[in-house]
Amino acid sequence: RSALQEAVAASIGTLPEREAMVLQLYFVEELNLEEIGQTLDIGAARVCQIKKSALDKLRGKLSDWN
Whole-prediction pTM value? Predict the structure, then answer.
């Protein structure tokens, strides 16, 4: 389990800054899409797109863990 956590953390570190920030705010800070949008001065729909893109990239990088 700790190896998977390290792999996830390393993969997040390779994401573009905005994508990593959205994931941080959503999963760690537990903000909703609207709150993240207000923080980053973008719409909730755009936050949703960024989050999806980041998660798709993480799934691709971590596909060996399936």
Answer: 0.85
Give the rounded percent of residues in the chain with a pLDDT score beyond 90: 68
Query: What's the CA gap between 54 and 66, in Å, rounded?
Result: 18
pLDDT tens digit sequence for 52-64: 999 999 999 888 7
| CA–CA dist 42, 66 (Å, integer) | 34
Burial of 47 by CB count in 10 Å (0-12 exposed, 13-18 middle, 19+ buried)? buried
Classify residue 21 as left (phi > 0), alpha (psi -120 to 50) or beta.
Answer: alpha
